Each structure stands twice: as C-alpha cells, then as structure tokens.
Amino acid sequence: MRILYVTLKPLEFNTSATLRNLAMIEGITSLGHSVEILTIPATQNSEWLDTTLAVPQNCEISYLSQLNAYVGVTEKHDGFVGKLKKSVLPLMRWLYHKLSIYDFTIMIAKKADKIHCRHSNYDIIISSSDPKSSHIAVRNLLRSGLKCQHWIQYWGDPLAFDITNQTIWPTFILKMFEQSLIKEADKVVYVSPFTLQQQQMGYRKVAQKLSFLPIPYRKINEYALRENYPLDCCYLGDYYTRSRNILPFVEAVQHLELRSVIAGNTDIEVKGKHISVLNRISQSQVTDIEQQSRILVCLLNRKGNQIPGKLYHYAASNKPILVIVDGDESRKMEQYLLSFDRFELCVNDSKMIEAKLNSMLSEDKIYKPSERLNPSTIAFEFLSLKNNKE
C-alpha cells in the first residue's frame, strides 16, 4: 500500500512523540508498504534537535513550509539575543498556550496543501500527534483535493483531557474542536486503553471508530549482562511537578545510597550525594546510560489516563524495569501493566520504592524484550484497523 504519514513534529526532534512515530513508520515499512512522510524541517539550533536520531532511509520525505514565527520560537541564539529570548520566550509561550488551543505549528497546518505531497492519491493517510495540528494539516490536505481510501488519526494525548493543556478555553469548547476532528477520520487510535475508554464515553456517537494500541519500540536492545554495573538505576525522562512527582524516588535512592542518574527537563532542583542530575539528553546518551544501569525506572503521571512512552521503549531491553505507579487511576494502571508480564511495579512512596529497589537488586531474574511491542506486530494491527467496520 502507498501510505502518507503526516506529523508536524520534526523527525530529528528528541521527543516521545518522535520516537513513537519513527517506531510506527519502521514497523510499516518492514511489512513491505511504501511510506511518504510529510513533516516540517527541523530548526537546526533548536534545543530539541538530536542529530543521533536515525531517520528512516527507505521513505520519501516531503516538507511543509516553515513560517518565520515558528522558527523564531524554536530557534536558539547566543549572546545578547539569546539571553533576551531566554528571559522573554517562556512568558510568550505561556501566554500563547493560555490563549490558543493548538501550538505554534497550527500556522503551518492551516497552509497545508496537496502540492506539498508527491502523489495525488494514497491508500492510507496517517496523521500523528503531538502536535495535534498534524490532524488539522491532513484535514486541509483533503480539502485541497488530496485523495485517500482511509484516514487514520494516531493520538498521543487527547485534546480536551490532556493533562499538560494550559489553555484558558473551557473543556466543552475543546470537546467541540476535538469531536469535529474525530468525525472526519475513518479510524482513531489512542496509545492508552484508559484514554480510549474516556474518549468513548465522551464521544458516544463516534465511539465505534475509536481504538487502542500500545506504543511500539524501535528496535530490541539486548545488553550484555554484568556482575557489577557502574549505575544501580536511572530515570530518563521529564519530571515537571505538575505532571510527575519524582521526590519519593529521590528520597529512596538517597537513603539506599544508590549510584543513579536522573536526566530530563524539570522545574525543580534535585540534589543527591550519589545522584547525577542532567538536563534532557540525546538518544545516544540514553542508550549509554541504559547500558550502564542495573535497573531502568519509569515514573507514571500524577493524574490522567496517559502512560509515558518511555515505559514501552524500555521494554525493548533485557533490563529490569521498575514502574512507579501514581495518580488517581493507579489501580487500573497496575492491572494493565501486569498483563505484559514484563514490568516490576510499586506505588509512589519512598519506603515502598526503597523496598522494591532492594528486592530487585538482590535477585537474578532474567528479563527479555517484549514481543508484544515489536514494531512490525503493532504496525500490522494498526493497518488492519481499516478493515474493521464501524
């Protein structure tokens, strides 16, 4: 089949959404399908740029035109201009996200036209968020005359119930925008079974076209097992306080005096005698730290139905994975994660985390990469959704 994959997140940006997109694209191409990627160019000095990310080589890549306003908010500068932007830009972003439903890429999505694509007709068009403007781009492509047999929307976070949403727009308005988008798709896929349940309850008239599939990993990482590791554990991901509470983990690691690394963007200061604290790192650095660590740690969100993509990417390895369960949906999350027979779980309490880490460090349990999350398997199930009748 000829497939157009649309994402307004540059393929070279180191984000969870990008890793999910790359894994899905590679899964689709492994099945023998032809994929054209429609995206936007990466701003070369953006803080999100990661030149170590391997972009698929067996795909056609087309680009929507960037706008100066978008480049202005993603680009880094040195000197006085850089200092000025560093102080002013957070306020500008905060104000924009308060007043707008979509991020800056909506300006690019509104100008999407079939002339940006290499073909006039596709078997399937996949629009993938975040950003959610990717779905707006496909809607405008179709309105400009682009043809397809099936349009599948692939959602990371929902629109109305996104826990990171900062907009002042009321929920009922967001639901109107979201439902209008969902109605136009042939199928809609979410990456959390709990988000699916929530969306089916919220949009009963289109509930039958909504589905769930877990996130695939990109490739299997079977690390050589050691007697002694340089690091006891690592947490590699963002931990903004509005979304995740990392302090119980920090307290447990400090008390046990474990050698550990915490790497990711945050709004709090974390210190520890045996903890190395880093900002967001490249994927090659992630691989290096994973290889040096005995245990990989994933922290679930304080609230909401979403499951961090990091958890699924960790499942590509043969390392022990500790998932720290948090939030008002913790009981359901536990039941779901236990079904994979791959993760070790504990609640987000320092004493419980301490006991679980101690137990995991003292045992010699053998772990294997999860076959359930193989990219070819997930891609086959994803494309098969077009055959399901509403």
Q: What does this entry look like structurally?
A:
The chain is of the alpha/beta class and 390 residues long. The chain has two domains: 2-216 and 377-387, Glycogen Phosphorylase B (Rossmann fold), CATH 3.40.50; 231-372, Glycogen Phosphorylase B (Rossmann fold, 3-Layer(aba) Sandwich), CATH 3.40.50. It has helices spanning 16-30, 68-74, 79-99, 106-109, 133-143, 171-184, 193-202, 247-256, 283-292, 309-314, 330-338, 350-362, 375-384; strands at residues 2-6, 34-39, 60-63, 121-129, 147-155, 187-190, 210-212, 231-236, 260-263, 275-278, 293-299, 321-325, 344-347. Helix 1 (16-30) packs across helix 13 (375-384) and helix 8 (247-256) packs across helix 12 (350-362). It is globular. The mean pLDDT is 90.
What's the gist of this structure?
The protein is of the alpha/beta class.
Keywords:
globular; 18% strand; Rossmann fold; alpha/beta; 13 helices; seven-stranded parallel sheet; 390 residues; six-stranded parallel sheet
Per-chain topology:
Blueprint: E1 2-6, H1 16-30, E2 34-39, E3 60-63, H2 68-74, H3 79-99, H4 106-109, E4 121-129, H5 133-143, E5 147-155, H6 171-184, E6 187-190, H7 193-202, E7 210-212, E8 231-236, H8 247-256, E9 260-263, E10 275-278, H9 283-292, E11 293-299, H10 309-314, E12 321-325, H11 330-338, E13 344-347, H12 350-362, H13 375-384
Parallel strand pairs: 1-2, 1-4, 2-3, 4-5, 5-6, 6-7, 8-9, 8-11, 9-10, 11-12, 12-13
Helix pairs in contact: 1-13, 8-12
